[in-house]
Amino acid sequence: MLVSRSLCLLQSTPIFSNKSLLPHKFTKFNKKLSTFSPSLKWRVVRKKGMLLSVNAVSAEDFPENPMKRVRIVLHPTSLPGNYAIDDLGDKVFKFLDWIHHFGCSVWQVLSLVPLGRKADEEGSPHCGQDANCGSTLLISLEELVKDGMQSELCLKLLQVSKPNKAEIYGYQENKGEDDDWDGEIDDEPAPPSHIVLVQGPPNVGKSLLIKSLFKHFTEQHMIDDIQGPITIRTGDKRKRLQFEECPDDINGMIDAAKYADLVLSLVDARNFRVLSLLRVHGLPKVMGVLTHLDQFKDETELTKTIEHLQDHFQTEICEGATIFHLSCLNDYELYKMLEVQKLAEAISMLRFRTPSWRAEHPYVLVDRFEDVTPPEKLHKDANCKRIIGLCGHLRGCNIKSGSKVHLAGVGDFRLDGVRSTADPSPLSSEMEKENDFFEPPHMKKKRFRTGTYIRLEVHDVPFSIVENFDPCHPILVGGINHEEDNVGCMQARLKRHDWHMKLLKSEDPTTVSAGWRRYQTIPIYAMELDTKQHESAKYIPQYEHCLAMFWGPLAPPHTRIAVVQGNKEVFRIRATAVVLDPKHHSKIVKESKLKGKPHKIRGRRAPIKFTPDTDVDKVIGASIRTWTEIRGKVDEATKKEGIAKCTFKSKIDFHDTVIMPVFRQVEAPRVHYPLAALEPHDYIVPVNKDSLKQGDPAAHRQLRLAQQRLSAEDFAVNVGEDLPENYGDWFPEKDIKDKRRAGILLHPTSLHGNYGIGDLGDDVFNFLDWLHHSGCSVWQVLPLVPPGRKANEEGSPYSGQDANCGNTLLISLEELVKDGLLNKDELPKPMDAERVKFEAVASVKEPLIAKAAERLMLSEGELKKQLEEFRKDPEISGWLEDAAYFAAIDNSLNTFTWNEWPEPLKNRHIVALEGIYETERDFINNFIAQQFLFQRQWHKVRKYAQSKGIRIMGDMPIYVGYHSADVWANKKQFLLNRSGFPVLVSGVPPDAFSETGQLWDSPLYDWKAMEAVGFSWWVQRIRRAHDLYDEFRIDHFRGFAGFWAAGPKKALFDAIFKSVGKIDIVAEDLGVITEDVVQLRKAIGAPGMAVLQFGFGGDSENPHLLHNHESDQVAYTGTHDNDTVRGWWENLKQEEKSSVLKYLAIGEEGDISWTLIRVLLSSVARTAIIPMQDILSLGSSARMNVPATQFGNWSWRLPSSLSFDDLEPEAKKLRDILLLANCPTTKT
């Protein structure tokens, strides 16, 4: 039957009947699986954290491309039947006919074994008693009648009363629990008890002091030893005090400093170590208590000791800090009640304050601990995950069920239950009634206020917290805000502690206490230079602040940090720090000097061999000097490895040593290890220095398992049981590049601006705020180069005169006013223009930008220093000087192309260029200053985007214009004849954009010549793009693989990756794409493109149709060369519209732009980009460019009447779609 219908029957087969083993144990079963079929595959089916089954599927039953086969998943019991369950009768055959008619070729069923019969598994096809038998309930009674094995009378009796399916299997309705808070809050509770921490070294009298204060407040003697916190009411019954003895280990001290409201510091001249922790975590009230003074026999020595301790204490806390004396014991072996009374009165009159950081986080100091794990689970496995109940007063801010919290020394958990319960020490005379039941799942959630005595229930806690529970060691539960739930790189302002005598060394693993957490990490230290740069420092001085960069759980800005070093024997505060705002993060660089000697000297040029060996391609354009201060720069690499051709301002000698200063950016190692303190409480996991530095994932997992004392047996679970907490550690973490994301295509010129064009002023920051609010994480722009100025290319960012310069028309005049380079009254009147008129904009903005640049060059402030650094930057000076000279010559001669210039200038004779510098010096310097102003404003925009979690995707044309500084300065690397004219020019054949093709007139590259010099021009261009963007698209990527002339293929990208490092590239692979293009794209790991508008033409194999998209693609509704979605739709013929509607299964009503946006965001492509015009549902008049046309392009702008505040509905709509499409959003 199945063969005749060309159907494939796919059965879900449970491999293991009792234990389901996880993937790390599947290696043992590969041989078993292979016995079924040589090509057998397996996969784990997971749902809501439960291990359901292991499905064995034979690859021989699948076609070559399983994505092209449609499967119907339906178990036979779900089909309609005469006896409350379907069977293998007529209905099955009708269903198979329907599948065949529908066009499907696979029917997937669940396991056909006998169904489970136990109460907790009744009806389950995956809980059968036999792995090979079939379910007899599926036998058709009608088929038995046909076979003569059953009478028709029996069938009629069965049909009299049909039980429903719930009665057969015992199904019960499972009402889901609504986790959303409906706004209901508890009544205002009494304020929580104030935590009084009694701290001091061993045998100083901490317990004795607590007993004495207990006697004073309660007029009762404490008989038992102190075990855990003690809560009492003061005499006026309006204040509660909770006394806690501070543990004498590093973990206890760190935690105690985070929850104490008052510290009674018992001093015997030995101990001040916890005071530094208190200062770091928000200094509470501190009172000093001097004890053991009665042991002094000499009054003079006693007086000197008291003065010394008072001075020391007030130095640590503040001038005039309160300090009390306790000297003698009374008959009850307590301190004298008169001395205790003074201390108690001071405590009672004290006005407590909560540090701001604590006030923003909910936290509970646990005073009651319960292990509520079911006994049957404990009997089965004594080391199983536990369910615990934690009681205490809620402090800080409100909390609700489902919140994420951190158990100090244990880890992060979700609260599975929160409820109020009877306060064991209420302020009122009437005892509160205890609410001994949890809220039913269908009841509305409540948020609990500060001061409420609550009970927290936490599941899946390691058994060690129960086995090693010590009532003298407090348990702190701290709430975690959303922004603290991520891991990343942080920078902090750090100072070495005065008492820590050893130097702090970069990349030396250390323990950090930040917020509620403590973990080990590897910091990088840096000192600020006079140039405001931060240079990596091997050691940091004792009395100076420095910048520290490290990896760990993110903490909000201004969070204080303690850097500690400790174990059971030694505890030291190494340093204190405060987290800096990520908006103001600094780049940390490390300087090194390369030394070289000349090989040959030809006038002012000489090849230099630098040591240590360096990749010359990375330092082309770098500034160099000799010991005699003769300066020069690196021109290009030679054929001999490690030797660079250099030009100096004057001739050098063979004995001269050439120095090249090189700055390299330093990154913090991306590793951190949470610290647990479960067994024993002073246990600190030792730092594995080697594995920390290597960042080995296997070492990460091994250390985490060692910390939590987990064995391999903890990962074996019964069918239907919850997965282990660390189940995910056995699978590779998903790379951030594999996560789906969405973005907006909008060129800066299209933004609002007062002078006829969008700029890098306030509106770009408003757009980034809107983009962040909408949930998008990518902003794509067109090339930022100076646009074309010729009549046939006006405004085109793809026809610029330089591949590396920035478009100075984007410079914001208002930002120049803020920098003091322009006066406010010098600004022109705003231009009310709906489209960009580039000539008009240039006539207004260019004179003012030039004036600002001139003032900058004449200034002596910080900006002038930054300009000089920009000019000397070896990664910039190489192309910047060429561009400045080219612009100066072009401005003075005003010819059509550089090939019309005089011979000396056309061929870059040194004497001619020196003459140009003498005559056009002001123009050249002004040009460089303008590029600095553009760079400064753009980097400000990019940093703001990074702070919002937004990546900027740039755009790079594969070719450059003939009349450009790039071709003029690098003629040998282009296919030019002896006269300097192109031998071949670029273009494209007829395609979807032009029936006659396009001719661009850009010269082709001489790839062989480029390869001979290590593709240095391309390396420099890519490095510049890497400085401007987080990632970028390369237009017409197929040109690298081949065209009518040979392409460089992978050799180019090997050179780029070797020099620049791994970069994120998007390959524009539209049009006719051959196999070599696909292979090159995949070889370098660059995603391709898919355009939804292109999909609705041709057959079902069209690669742009949604079902043909691939994950390594960037999907668009349309690009800058396409019409808007609305314009495209309005220009379609009726039969084409019908085809689109039929594919999308929608009606013609509704907004077609947002319909395609929803469709696009359901694509499997990891990145989806939407032009801003489609967000606004604009028509063809908003189109950015019409290929193969010369006029009216690149000028579209956002409507002036529309602000980003007006686009809040669109932002919400887009964010909702992204959440449904499972795209992580930037909205917090």
TrEMBL record:
One of its GO terms (biological process) is ribosome biogenesis. GO terms for cellular component: nucleus. GO terms for molecular function: 4-alpha-glucanotransferase activity. It holds the Pfam family RIBIOP_C. Residues 333-666 form the Ribosome biogenesis protein BMS1/TSR1 C-terminal domain. It is an enzyme of class 2 (transferase). Belongs to the disproportionating enzyme family. This is 4-alpha-glucanotransferase.
